[in-house]
Fold these 3 entries.
Entry 1:
Amino acid sequence: MPLLARPIKYQPQNQYSFLPNENEVKSFVYSWFSWIDYLSDEKIFTMHLCEVNLSIKYNNNGTITNNNEFMQWYKNFKDETQSSNTLVSNIKVTKIKDCTAYNVTMDVLYKIKPKNGKFTESSVFQKWILVVDKGGGLFIEKCIETQKDKPTSN
């Protein structure tokens, strides 16, 4: 699985060595959900979460505001999930904050087989704010998820 890491070069303060383009932002989004589907180690996620101003709001859950809370949520997800297949579509990317951040919106279809339960599908809409560090790395600052339709079980 690609890590999407770039070597960080010395740059004078307030200058960016690289600003990702729209396709690289979309690639990051697809990678994020791929890591979830592979039930990857939590470190790959936490290295892409903002250390300040983090706010992740998934349906029916409280707000995640730091790496420890994310790791606990993800541990619970992994403990309960046998397999996951996530389909992402309609990704829209808009530059903000002098091109050092992006608004990203998308439709997400979760297909999850829990360890103890029936296969479920859930369609949601997600809105992210991704910020760019001086080395061009992408970090999730905000994620808000809203349910599009009632989840189904088979």
Entry 2:
Amino acid sequence: MTMVIATALDLADVGKQLGVQCRRIPRRAPLRSKLQALLMLLYSESGDVDLAALEAKLQALLQLPDSVLALLIQHPDLADLNEMLDAVFLGTSDLSGVNAELDKIDVTSVPGPSEKIDVVKVSGKPTYIVHSPAVQEGTDTAAGSLVSTRWTGDGDGGIPG
């Protein structure tokens, strides 16, 4: 019987291998794929970025439906997000640029008896409101099934036309 004990160096090697795989993410990959790859990459990174806060942000974003992520990547205040993600995967930038872009996004979840409401703010302004079925104990939920999304634009509450 052989016992294998993973050392910190072994785990660092695994993280580096994941980082190399993440760097192969195509530039036109959906935002969800890039966020998932970035989450994997976090485990091999170090530096000035608060990795726990960045991980929490990524987890919150990954709970949103694909349709909301598609809207987020098109938001004018987040114009550099896609490029910053690509730069990290290509190895031409560190996490600080992505972190700065993601810091512009705030997701607040409010659970209710029949639905969960996510308020997504960009640059401090409520931008999207996502209504999803509430998670009930003991059942699987269609994570991020979108009931409605409302664009609030520049804070006027209007829906773009």
Entry 3:
Amino acid sequence: MTEYQMTMTDAFASTLAEETKDEVIARLEKQAIELRSNLTSMTSNWEYSRDRASQMLNKIKDFTNYLKEHVASEEIDLDIAQCYAGIFDIVLTKKYDVSVTVTFSGTVDVPLNMDEDSIPNNVSFSFDEGWSDGLEWDMTENDIDWDIQEAY
């Protein structure tokens, strides 16, 4: 501990020793009230900022929908709409529901002691999800049917 810290610690200790129990309690209550007031103020400011941010995000979403609707009705040129959307770093998109049926067939070499019922648990395949040529997709497996025949 430095000499300054020792001096400050001694000064603080002597101040506390000079205070009566009631004075200490009064000082601590005053500090608690001040801290509670600061916390209330900070919470209120945070809630206000959160609400304003939410309102702004909703306005941007409404603006994006406005642009999409007016491009679809050809009231606004796509290039102009994209320019406005770019101000907010928004990529104008539209959604399509897509259903794809994929058939995979092939021959799988398995150990002689493997039962055909265990093949589906040991064979897997996957599709990449993400962006491709400006398209974003998210796929889920709805149904997989297995037809397994022994090959010779």
